[in-house]
Amino acid sequence: MGNASAVPATDSIQTALADAAALLDARPEAALAQAEAILRRARRLPPAELLIGQALRRLGKPKAALARLAPLARQHPSVPAILWELAQAAQDAGDQRQAIAALESLTRQQPGVPGGWFLLAGLLRTVGRDGDAWRADLSGVHAASRDRDLLAAAMAMNEGRLDDAAALLTARADRLPDDPAGIRLMGEVQWRRGDMNAALAHVERAVALAPGFDLARDFLIRLLLQNNRLNEALAHAEILARSPIHNPGYDLIRASVLVRLGDQDAARSIYESLLADRPDQPQVWQNLGHALKTLGRQADAVHAYRQAVTHRPTMGEAWWSLANLKTVKLDADDLATMERALETLARDGQTEGEDVFHLHFSLGKAQEDRKADEAAFRHYDAGNRLRRAMIRHDAGEFSAEVAATATTFSAPFIAAMCDGGCPAPDPIFIVGLPRAGSTLVEQILASHSQVEGTMELPEMMMIASRLQSRVDEGEFADFAAMAASLTPADRRRLGEEYVEQTRVHRQSGKPRFIDKMPNNWQHVGLIKLILPNASIIDARRHPMGCCFSGWKQHFARGQAFTYDLTDIGLYYRDYVALMAAYDAAAPGRVHRVIYEQMVADTPGEVDRLLAYLGLDFEAACLSFWQTDRAVRTASSEQVRQPIYTGGVDHWRRFEPWLAPLADALGPIAHSYPDLPPR
Q1: What is residue 262's three-state secondary structure?
Q2: Parallel, antiparallel, or unpaired for β 535-540 and 590-594?
Q3: Which Pfam family, any one of them, does this sequence belong to (predicted)?
Q4: What is residue 297's DSSP assignment?
Q5: Which of 78, 300, 349, 470 can bridge 292 by disulfide, Cβ–Cβ 3.0-4.6 Å?
Q6: How many Å is the maximal CA-CA distance in the chain?
Q7: Cα 540 from Cα 561, distance rounded (Å)
Q8: In 436-576, where do the E strands start and end?
């Protein structure tokens, strides 16, 4: 009996172990005492030894914990709980070697547990085993892809149930606060909700926790691009390109960042490398064509685009890229191939997609080059109707916004707001409508030794959009109230933000630079508020010629007003009205370049232009086509040759079909370049 009573009952031991385990997090000292008492009753009991190690670690005694856990792991090398605790104790004690060994054993036994992989990755990185760490992060992500909670949250997100997805992820974060996969998914939920700041914060944290989480870094790059944080995007793209899991898509996203930064040559090199490995990639051929066109290598660009349509004859954007070179004329064989491509798409049930409308624009240009004007107009009209159906543009709503802007920036308002803003004279804004000659003006000025040509920069539009959001969110009754609230310090801060954000595009060290974003005509008042010494040039072209040229041009993005003749005519009227209002409120602040006058008297107009900018005359401005620089707009080839006169009255060939445009323009079409009587 005496010996029997000395052996504790199994049920009582299990109960004691469970009680001790329950105390671990809140009262580790009590858990330690109970575990030691159990060991006195049942020596070398593994669960009690594990509890002692767990309690010691929680009490901040990792070395003591390690002394208990290491021999336990040697005796029971296949128990995951022991290996997990040993790894954490060794990590806390600074013994990375033992922690890594424990985690490597654990992840071999339980490869489907993400936490082990992520902890292993962090430890491997501390000892310089970066490649192995990267693979461990990737294994952790792969394991997390089977997590039921994450799968449920992802399904809810994809079905548009964003609140449900967020609730699932929040509950999961309470249990696993440092889980990279859950944090990245919450970032995507926030992005879909429209909360960009929260999205960025979550995805940046996911990448910080698991630097080898390639899909999270890829998503982060795309978010940074959306926020125009180009240098950060490039830094992450360079890291992603070094992933041990080679993915050509990562090279493509790095190339896209380089394109946004204006480094076309580096992007070209990436595309050529990808094609050397696999030449049957039409999308990469097309991207290469874009880079080569921007660099002025027209013959090589033509070859790249033709390779794209050879590999995929229905690739409408590549056909349009060929046609859009302006100096290239598509022949009868091209016409036949494009017509067959439309038939192929129709047989496949594709009658409205991007390939279809691109092919119509391309066929329009091909027929126009052949002087088959009616057929050309028919294709242009078909392409525009398809494109217009895909976008939102409310001409009446836009006109109301423009009228409100004109009312805001009155002469008394401008006089009252004379102080403030960033005094930097660096920026030269070229505004107007697309296809109005702004690229020609840019190329002339970029040929001057004191002026750097950049590209169409989005920074001013982003600042304006951010200010407008304060109105939309109810902080101010209208834009006028918001603008009036800006203190001199506010305006200086915004101007300095613009100068700093655009610095990434300035490579030459020249004192002045060009921002050729045509749509900035909507923001001339704001520009002068925050950058009072900036120069603004309004590039203007005959309304019929400018609007028709814009209507038959498919733009890669934006310009939603160009896909309907009435819409674009009304837009031109709004533009003229706002610029006239600003001229009256602040005479002489904007310099106007009339395209037809620039063509007729280039030296005189260039002289006037340089005088407005306070620049000495330089002969290079008259031989602008010899200036070697990247040009991304639709006029890239035209500005690489002397002044082109053929486009001045080109629209008259199509006048029989342009009545809707003429009606929308009204008297503006007849009084140009003067304004019609009020």
Answers
A1: coil
A2: parallel
A3: Sulfotransfer_3
A4: -
A5: 300
A6: 120
A7: 17
A8: 451-455, 512-515, 535-540
Indicate the range of 320-324, 517-521, 557-561 predicted with least confidence. Answer: 557-561
- Measured at the alpha carbon of residue 432, what is the angle toward residues 426 and 433, in degrees to the nearest 5? 140
pLDDT tens-digit readout, 221-276: 999 999 889 999 999 999 999 999 888 999 999 999 999 998 999 999 999 999 99
Q: Please, which residues have CB within 8 angstroms of residue 517's CB and are 6 or more apart in sequence?
A: 429, 431, 456, 457, 458, 460, 461
Where in 530-598 does DSSP place strands (E)? 535-540, 590-594
586 found inside a domain: yes
Distance CA 322, CA 634 (A): 11
Closest by Cα among 463, 626, 618 to 534: 463
Contact 476, 671 (CB under 8 A): no
3-state secondary structure 42-97: CCCCHHHHHHHHHHHHHCCCHHHHHHHHHHHHHHCCCCHHHHHHHHHHHHHHCCHH
Task: Count other C-beta atoms under 10 Å from residue 145's C-beta.
Answer: 14
380 inside domain: no
The Cα–Cα gap between 483 and 348 comes to 52
- In the chain, % of residues over pLDDT 70: 95
* pLDDT band (50, 70, 90) for residue 1: very low
What tokens does 274 get? 């990808």
- What is the enclosing helix (H) or strand (E) of 47? helix 46-58
Q: How many H-runs (helices) and E-runs (strands) does the chain carry?
A: 36, 5
DSSP secondary structure code for residue 511 in this structure = S
Over residues 402-415, mean pLDDT: 94
Residue 181 has a pLDDT of: 95
> Mind listing the pLDDT tens digit for each residue in 526-556?
999 999 999 999 999 999 999 999 999 998 7
Rounded Cα distance, 362 and 350, in Å = 17
User: Is residue 191 included in any domain, yes or no?
Assistant: no
Q: Which domain holds residue 488?
A: 395-632+645-671
Determine the 3-state secondary structure of 417 from DSSP.
coil
Q: Do 601 and 608 form a contact (C-beta atoms < 8 A)?
A: no
pLDDT digits (tens, 9 = 90+) for 63-82: 999 998 998 989 888 888 89
Q: Which of 674, 439, 465 is nearest to 553 (CA)?
A: 439
Identify the CA nearest to 183 among candidates 156, 157, 163, 201: 201
Contacts of 677 (CB under 8 A, 6+ apart): 667, 671
Q: Examine the pLDDT at 5 and tell me if it is beyond 50.
A: no
Alpha carbon 305 to its chain centroid, in Å, reads: 24
- Do 81 and 109 meet the contact criterion of CB atoms below 8 Å apart? no
- Nearest CA to 326 out of 563, 666, 639, 669 is that of 639
* Spatial distance between the Cα atoms of 286 and 320, rounded to a whole number of angstroms: 11
Tokens read off for 73: 């792991």
Q: Directed axis angle between helix 46-58 and helix 10-23, to 10°?
A: 10
Tens of pLDDT along 277-319? 999 999 999 999 999 998 989 999 999 999 999 999 999 999 9
CB 360 within 8 A of CB 320: no
The sheet carrying 512-515 orders its strands as: 451-455, 512-515, 427-432, 535-540, 590-594
Q: CATH number of the domain that 454 lies in?
A: 3.40.50.300
Contact 360, 328 (CB under 8 A): no
The whole-angstrom separation of Cα 45 and Cα 75 is 12
**Alpha-carbon distance 674 to 677, whole Å?**
9
Q: Measured at the alpha carbon of residue 187, what is the angle toward residues 181 and 193, in degrees to the nearest 5?
A: 140
Number of other CB atoms surrounding residue 636 within 10 Å: 22
What average pLDDT score do residues 608-624 get? Answer: 93
CA–CA distance, 610 with 299 (Å, rounded to integer)? 34
Domain count for the chain: 1
141 vs 212: CA distance, rounded Å: 9
Domain annotation covers residue 276:
no
Q: How far apart are CA 64 and CA 333, in angstroms?
A: 82
